[in-house]
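Notes to self after the Tuesday call (sharing in case useful).
The group wants a holo model before anyone commits to mutagenesis around the pocket. I volunteered. Ligand is flavin mononucleotide. Logging inputs and output together so the record is complete.
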Amino acid sequence: MIISSATDYREAARRRLPPFLFQYIDGGSYAEQTMRRNISDLADIALRQRILKNVSALNTGTELFGRKLNIPAALAPVGLTGMYARRGEVQAARAAARKGIPFTLSTVSVCPIEEVQGRSPVPIWFQLYVLKDRGFMKNALERAKAAGITTLVFTVDMPTPGARYRDAHSGMSGPNAAIRRYVQAMTHPIWAWDVGVRGRPHDLGNISRYRGNPTKLEDYIGWLANNFDPSISWKDLEWIRDYWDGPMVIKGILDPKDAKDAVRFGADGIVVSNHGGRQLDGVLSSARALPPIAEAVKGELKILADSGIRSGLDIARMVAMGADAVLLGRAFVYALAAGGQKGVENLLDIMEKELRVAMTLTGASAISDLTSESLARLAPEFG
Ligand SMILES: Cc1cc2nc3c(=O)[nH]c(=O)nc-3n(C[C@H](O)[C@H](O)[C@H](O)COP(=O)(O)O)c2cc1C
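Result:
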């Protein structure tokens, strides 16, 4: 099929993957209102066209935590990425490195830290969840450090998982899930051979290494449900800040008050995020949450934003609203599922071109030129 955008990659991923995996990626929590608004609210942000500004020396590059990025983006942590493409985390990390942006490895990845970092030419970022088993957290941090990782993304919006109705229907969970997954795999032979057979082992690499025995996909949902920790507070994070000497980014902030707490805590960055609409349905879209947060803490730490970003135009919108950079979630996962490392590289090329067009036509020569001045003020009735 012809691929010219992240939307095309979504369709290509839908065809390639067994439904239980496609629906797991594509879905959100409850009625999926927030997930839809992430996209529609972002699309409603009007860019301000400016002309004849001589943007011939256009530069999409920026700097984040001491590293130069080719575009103001990084790949978001996404669990089970090694189920969407063969050793998917390795492929995505290599694509990100080639395109000059960071890759973030999820706690619940298929490939363990050592495998991904060992096959990436540059340091990756590591994402950690707050889990009841503090021994696991400590072990993961030690291994990340030993592997040479310096940037830690700490996800705090999952003290308990939100319900995802699609998973029960698709075979990800629910009755006869294992049999249904098997039948789906058999009817998606390209995936079955490439990932199902050649992409083994299919366990949660980081957790298996810690526990000393494989943690299978079947254990995944149960393990997560039993291990998220609702008792967590800022105080509990202090040992991590003391332990981790590199940049620490808090992911899952939607409120200016929490952003200020993150500054007080000493975080180097935050990610304005509702987890792609996969946690509390009904909360603000990131596009709406970002501007007041930027007003509260801009310049005091780095502001990243995700949820709903599907194009280079969306990157320009988020930056113009105050983000220093964005995280790409589903967009890169669809490309990875459809085309592996090459697919992600191609998606990043597409997004860079889109960003260039957005900058050219808003009269921005550098990322720092994308400001609130790059947005059109709408009459209140368009609100
Ligand atoms: C399939 C899937 C798995 C995810 N797993 C994680 C995870 O393990 N850790 C985490 O911090 N965020 C996780 N996220 C959230 C992403 O990091 C990111 O916040 C979200 O995908 C952004 O929304 P978008 O996909 O609409 O762009 C996951 C998202 C998806 C779609």
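Two things stood out.
Residues 330-362 form the longest helix (33 residues).
The mean pLDDT is 95.
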